[in-house]
Amino acid sequence: MSKKTYYLVSLGCAKNTVDSHSMAALLDQAGYKGVDQPVQAEVLVVNTCGFIKPAADESISVLKDLGKKKRRDQLLIAAGCLTERYREKIVELVPAVDGIIGTRRWMDIVDVIQQTRQERPQRTLYHLPDTPTVGVDETGVLRAARQGGSAYIKIADGCRRPCAFCAIPLIKGKNVSRPVDAILSEARLLQEQGVQEIILIAQDTTDYGQDLGLKEGLAHLLERLVTEVPEIPWVRILYAYPGYVTDRLIDVMAAHPQILPYLDMPLQHAHPQTLRRMRRPANMDWVYRTLDKMRTRIPGLALRTTFIVGYPGETDEEYQTLLDFIQAIRFDHVGAFMFSFEPGTTSEALGDPVSAALKQERMEQLMLLQQNISLANNQALVGKTLDVLVEGYNDGISVGRSYRDAPEIDGLVFLDGQAPVGEIVKAQISGALTHDLTGTLIPMQTQV
């Protein structure tokens, strides 16, 4: 085994992926080399997720597995969300862990490794204190995670919303926005690298800039962004918060073709009483009016949302209201989750009274409804021409995504023939599946 090698596992969402890429960049700068197998590494790093219990269980499982196989000359470092919330639990359950970094201290990865190695004879578990401040993540490394022709840019971290079920404020703290100029600088670099799609992410993108004194911060950032990177054809927005999709934001999206007609706005439920128990925006009139306004102003708008079923106190009537809402709005993409009891959140006092069996039944019923809607929406696209960002090719089939699909969470487009990976091509849609589309490439010389 060569010295100064690392093996990094990234768990959880795209926001974690950005932090993992940033840690890898710092390790590379310090002379480390990334390897594909744990056995090849001097340092094992797990960027954990602790958002809900299944994610936390997965993180613990990965740490335990690496810990069992770890040699005496290897270090195991736990980073990310789980370490922020359950530091003592990690130490107890995975004694093989040598060092810990909180979620906002990813930039200290090299220091933690060095300090852990120095203190190794005393076997002192080492971590740096968490002191998040504005601009704390501006270390000079690219705060983006590139995947093929796409790249995620994290524009903020943390959240100040009061959602009763959510542990993110406990893990991340309040929203801290990154400076506009830093984001634009990264976007220009990605443009130089030939990236075709920038995806803006945060716990709540619509809260961007509030702590910087910016009014309508996301709209302001988008206006600056499309001017700075005119050669990047796709800009996508994820994680908008209900009630904060403003008229100005809608106008900016409608005015700039670079900003994709796609919005991810997690609504979590549709019954006002359930939403109030969740401490979420409960004005469903606003939701109906805003979605209608967006569809009028932004032709072809693709809408994604997420819902929680089995929240404490959810009655049959409340659940039926949710189904009726989904039927009425006909979202393009829906994610559904069964309520996960999280100690320390505001909802802890409500307990977890809805049975696991009923949660499962409700989720399956909801997803069956959405599958039928998704299939019908896809069937309406047959015969149309769509731009497709190509992500791969295998055995005569090119695989990509249209503007309607965000990476990893939405559908795919399967095309006959070979198309250039990382480029946007035109395709005629010939078939529809529940979540995916099929089509044929339009030859370049016939594209209009």
TL;DR?
The protein is an alpha/beta fold and 448 residues long. It contains 13 helices and 20 strands. Helix content is 34%, strand content 22%.
Keyword list:
alpha/beta, single chain, 13 helices, 22% strand, pyruvate-formate lyase- activating enzyme, six-stranded parallel β-sheet, OB fold (Dihydrolipoamide Acetyltransferase, E2P), 448 residues, seven-stranded mixed β-sheet, Rossmann fold
Fraction in beta strands: 15-25%
- Name the shape in a single word: globular
Mean pLDDT: 90
Largest sheet: 7 strands, mixed
In spatial order, strands of the major sheet run 7-8-11-12-13-14-15
> How many domain units?
3
Oligomerization state = single chain
**SS element count, helices:** 13
The counted number of beta strands is: 20
Distance between the termini: 55 Å
Helical residues, percent: 25-40%
Nearest-angstrom radius of gyration?
A: 23 Å
* CATH architectural group of the largest domain: Alpha-Beta Horseshoe
Structural class: alpha/beta
CATH homologous superfamily identity of the largest domain: tm_1862 like domain
- In the CATH scheme, the class of the largest domain would be Alpha Beta
Descriptive report:
With 448 residues, this protein is an alpha/beta fold. The chain folds into 3 domains: 5-127, Methylthiotransferase, N-terminal domain (Rossmann fold); 144-379, pyruvate-formate lyase- activating enzyme, CATH 3.80.30; 385-446, OB fold (Dihydrolipoamide Acetyltransferase, E2P) (Beta Barrel). Helix content is 34%, strand content 22%. The chain has 13 helices and 20 strands. It has helices at residues 14-29, 53-69, 81-85, 87-93, 109-119, 168-172, 180-192, 217-228, 247-255, 272-278, 284-297, 316-329, 356-379; strands spanning 5-10, 33-34, 43-48, 75-80, 99-100, 126-127, 144-147, 150-154, 156-157, 176-177, 197-201, 234-237, 259-264, 302-309, 333-338, 385-394, 397-401, 413-416, 424-432, 437-441. The strands form 4 sheets. The chain has a 7-stranded mixed sheet, with helices on both faces. Strands 2-1-3-4-5-6 form a 6-stranded parallel sheet, with helices on both faces. A 5-stranded mixed β-barrel has the order 16-17-18-20-19. α7 (180-192) packs parallel to α8, α8 (217-228) packs parallel to α9 (247-255) and α12 (316-329) packs parallel to α13. The model is unreliable at 129-136 (pLDDT under 50).
